[in-house]
Amino acid sequence: MLWLGVTNASLGQWPQWGGPTRNFKAETKDLAICWPENGPALLWRRPLGDGYSSIIVHRNRLFTMYRDEEDEVIIALSPKTGRTVWEHRYSAPVSKEDFARRYGIGPRSTPLVMDHRIYAIGFNGTLHCLDEHTGASRWRIELLDRFGGNKTRWGYACSPLAHHNLIIVFTGGRGASVVALEADSGRVIWKRHDFKNSYASPILIDVDGEQQLVCFMTHEIAGLDPNDGRLKWRHPHENQWRNNVVTPVWGAGNMLFLSSEGHGGSRVLKLSRRGTKTNVRELWHTQKLRISHRNAIRIGDYIYGSHGDFGPRSFDAVHVMSGEFAWRNRNFSKSGLVWADGKFLMLDEDGNLTLATATPEKLTLHAKAKLLEHPAWTIPTLVGHHLYLRDRKVIMAVELP
User: What's the pLDDT score for residue 263?
Assistant: First the structure.
């Protein structure tokens, strides 16, 4: 089943967090398993400021965000050359008293493109709607101030989600924890709930024919009606550091996988619907798989993800129905994943890009290249054979053979 809310025109590109269907899977075919000795061919490389926003691709443009001293910048680039097409710069000072700076203060959220508009949210929770072609401002909302949202220690990180003509975001405000805005104007269509804001991003799923909005918040995961925000169900999931970051994974059998660092660990919920009621049953929970701030991908009956918070690290295969480990490969640092052509592209935090095939039986490594520097925490973007990557200093494009 696909995540919903993406137009057909966007398929094959990368218009939002997680790609066309928000699950980090690309349509690329014919990826060679051998790379040149120096790695994939470099198309271009250029400086870019601090930030972890991933790179979206739409209509022959790249879009992302970065910090330049006291300003934040939303930038459009040429995918062929990396040159700047336009920039939208705005003042965004960060309070030393409100935020920990250990991991930088660049933007965390990934922009969204829809109907010739870019929606981008900065470190302080400032949401801009810009013209896709020129970068001119359409409207702007200070999400945390407007809705009384809670400030998270490491900055705002939720990536906006499109649903029909709505832009859905988290704020953590009382009675406005989740907010849906009219895409054209920024007008509030609905706001609901008292969940505390997290670093995760929402997804849309289909539960037995009914669309639901899945929100992974600080203390729980919840399902809402995306049209009006009404609560469908909720289930607790907490860790001692209140760092719920990873985008949940939805798949066949109505199974929802979620993971976080610390005591939260990983669990799978099975959803089913009878009439207007959604039933939630936890199939398993383990602290042996703790994904801190990357992603997980489901292939068939297995979840693949990069385990590790402050202890040992591994790349793991876990049976989605039982929670049993098929294998654990301890040769990897924490990695962000993209899946295409039956293979994984894995970018670890030290900047190493690996091409591998994962099956329930084993992980087979094909090629590896050092491309970026630590911390390379941004998950790559793949469109065709062009892979776009960044760390906190540079952005680059390579061509996969």
Answer: 93
Phi, psi of 180 (to 5 degrees): -115, 125
Which pLDDT score is estimated for 8?
39
3-state DSSP assignment of residue 8: helix
- Could you report the average pLDDT of every consecutive run of 10 residues in the chain (401 residues)? 39 89 97 96 98 97 98 98 98 89 95 97 98 98 97 96 98 98 98 98 98 98 98 96 96 98 96 95 97 96 94 94 97 94 98 98 97 97 98 98 97
Given a contact cutoff of 8 angstroms between Cβ atoms, the answer to whether 348 and 369 are in contact is no
Instruction: Return the number of other C-beta atoms located less than 10 Å from residue 33's C-beta.
Output: 14
- Pairing of β 188-192 and β 255-259: unpaired
Strands 220-224 and 231-236: antiparallel
Select from 7, 5, 26 the least CA-distant residue to 344: 26
Residue 380: half-sphere exposure toward Cβ, Cα within 13 Å: 33
First to last CA, the chain: 30
Q: What is the pLDDT, as a whole number, of residue 101?
A: 87
Give the three-state DSSP class for 9: helix
Strands 314-319 and 325-329: antiparallel
Domains along the sequence of the chain with CATH: 1-199+377-396 (2.140.10.10)
Judged on CB neighbours under 10 Å (0-12, 13-18, 19+), 238 is middle
What φ, ψ does residue 201 adopt, rounded to 5°? -125, 145
Predicted pLDDT at 310: 82
Say how far apart CA 15 and CA 111 lie, in whole Å: 8
For residues 192 and 150, is the Cβ–Cβ distance under 8 A? no
Q: How far apart are CA 304 and CA 250, in angstroms?
A: 13
Place of tokens 């990368």: 14
How many Cα atoms occupy the beta-carbon half-sphere of 178 within 13 Å?
Answer: 29
